[in-house]
């Protein structure tokens, strides 16, 4: 019976452990935290966006870095296979807008609990210890060393330590250090799926305001480089939310500031239709001040900012607002601009961009091309994707392949 050591008890590590044990290996999973799946429990705002109910090409298209590397892994264990896996584990799933898949219970803890239950059922041994090194003998792994000096022999070792995002959940970059010590290249690490920092005091004034069904475009040097539609929220120093996080993954490849964000607050209305809507609203309150005329059109928290940026005096009666002023107001509502000056920190990032170079990993098996019997899966690899369940799909697919081949089986 092959001995498999899995280092890291996150999404990919638990999947790898389940699959390796199911294939007949003797599996020991090493997790430094108090429980496996801590980060998984906070994904999707605690709901866990398990995967995206889409085809292979869409999975690859939404992986913004090294998507083609994942072709074999996605083919071996695609989103349909992931959904079947969790349904078989008793987790009922539903598909929401954007083909995002969530548990019917809206509880991430049900997902992590299902994986822990399966590991228990499959006889996976859990050791609460931080691994300091992977040992090799003539280019083949022979075991792992615990932080306290204990040695655990193994025929295969799977590194599933995650990235450096959300370090409070235990993702502190151990896998990168271990891989470097074994001769692997770690590409530049940076935050991805991260809030964006915005110039000025507008974010602070709008802090906590959530916008739904709005359009977003991002430009660099006057050229639009990203567009989206959906939800976003203002933070104390910038913007966040699903659209913004996905935008950050795209902008991370450019790495030049500043960027200009343009928010279309009324994407369903053309400029002409919006103008007619405003005229209609003004007609109902023609003797009111401008400051008291926008309640039907915009969130109350946003109105003072729009009034200020429009240049129209707040106390001007709406029946005396000029065509030119109204045109400027419409343009502002259709293109509310903010200047992005920086990314948020790794502490705020959903995932880490960068990691073990894919050039040094077999894309079919997830085995190292440098050390025999060493496998990688999940966020520790230099791959990352947009929001929408794609990053967890990467974790499941790479964990599945690593667990399969580390246990001596074939996909």
Biggest β-sheet strands, sense, barrel: 6 strands, antiparallel, barrel
Q: What integer value in Å does the Rg equal? A: 25 Å
The mean pLDDT is: 93
Could you give the order of strands across the largest sheet? 13-16-15-14-17-18
In CATH, the architecture of the largest domain is 3-Layer(bba) Sandwich
Portion of residues in beta strands equals 15-25%
Number of domains: 2
What name does CATH use for the topology of the largest domain?
A: FAD/NAD(P)-binding domain
Name of the level-1 CATH class of the largest domain: Alpha Beta
Total helical segments? 12
Q: Indicate the structural class.
A: alpha+beta
Can you walk me through this structure?
The chain is α+β, with helices and mostly antiparallel strands. The protein folds into 2 domains: 3-191 and 351-406, 3-Layer(bba) Sandwich (FAD/NAD(P)-binding domain); 195-344, no CATH class. It has 12 helices and 21 strands. The protein has helices at residues 11-22, 56-61, 71-76, 79-88, 108-121, 174-181, 202-205, 242-251, 271-284, 303-310, 323-334, 390-406, and strands spanning 3-7, 26-30, 51-52, 63-65, 93-95, 100-103, 125-127, 131-137, 140-146, 151-153, 156-159, 190-192, 196-198, 210-220, 223-234, 238-240, 259-264, 336-343, 351-353, 374-376, 384-385. The strands form 6 sheets. A 6-stranded antiparallel β-barrel has the order 13-16-15-14-17-18. The chain has a 5-stranded parallel β-sheet with strand order 7-2-1-11-20, covered by helices on one side. Strand 15 and strand 16 (238-240) form a beta hairpin. Helix 1 packs parallel to helix 5, helix 9 (271-284) crosses helix 11 (323-334) and helix 10 packs across helix 11. The protein is elongated and about 85 Å long. The protein starts with a strand and ends in a 5-residue tail after the last helix. The model has no long low-confidence stretch (mean pLDDT 93).
């Amino acid at each position: 019976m092959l001995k498999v050591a899995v280092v890291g008890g996150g999404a990919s590590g638990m999947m790898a452990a389940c699959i390796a044990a199911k294939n007949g290996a003797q599996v020991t999973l090493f997790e430094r935290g108090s429980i496996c799946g801590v980060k998984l429990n906070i994904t999707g705002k605690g709901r866990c966006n398990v995967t995206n109910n889409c085809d292979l090409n869409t999975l690859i298209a939404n992986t913004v870095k090294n998507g083609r590397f994942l072709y074999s892994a996605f083919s071996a264990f695609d989103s349909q296979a992931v959904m079947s896996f969790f349904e078989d584990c008793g987790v009922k799933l539903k598909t929401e807008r954007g083909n995002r898949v969530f548990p019917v219970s809206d509880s991430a803890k049900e997902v992590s609990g299902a994986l822990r239950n399966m590991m228990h059922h499959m006889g996976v041994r859990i050791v609460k210890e931080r691994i300091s090194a992977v040992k090799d003998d003539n280019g083949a792994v022979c075991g792992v060393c615990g932080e306290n000096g204990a040695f655990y022999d193994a025929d295969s070792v799977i590194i599933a330590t995650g990235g450096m995002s959300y370090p409070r959940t235990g993702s502190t970059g151990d896998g990168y250090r271990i891989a470097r010590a074994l001769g692997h290249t770690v590409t530049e690490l940076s935050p991805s799926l991260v809030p964006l920092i915005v110039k000025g005091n507008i974010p602070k004034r709008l802090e906590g305001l959530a916008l739904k069904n709005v359009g977003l475009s991002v430009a660099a040097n006057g050229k639009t480089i990203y567009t989206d539609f959906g939800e976003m929220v203002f933070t104390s120093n910038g913007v966040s939310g699903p659209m913004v996080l996905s935008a950050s993954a795209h902008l991370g490849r450019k790495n030049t500031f500043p960027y200009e964000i343009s928010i279309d607050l009324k994407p369903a209305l053309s400029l002409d239709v919006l103008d007619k809507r405003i005229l209609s609203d003004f007609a109902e309150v023609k003797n009111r001040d401008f400051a008291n005329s926008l309640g039907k059109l915009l969130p109350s928290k946003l109105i003072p900012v729009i009034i200020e940026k429009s240049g129209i005096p707040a106390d001007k009666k709406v029946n005396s607002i000029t065509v030119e002023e109204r045109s400027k107001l419409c343009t502002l509502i259709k293109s509310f601009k903010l200047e992005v000056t920086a990314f948020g920190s790794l502490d705020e990032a959903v995932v880490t961009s960068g990691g073990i170079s894919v050039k040094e990993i077999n894309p079919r098996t997830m085995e190292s091309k440098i050390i025999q019997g060493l496998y990688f899966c999940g966020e520790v690899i230099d791959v990352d994707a947009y929001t929408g369940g794609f990053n967890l799909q990467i974790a499941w697919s790479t964990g599945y392949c690593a667990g399969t081949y580390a246990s001596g089986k074939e996909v």
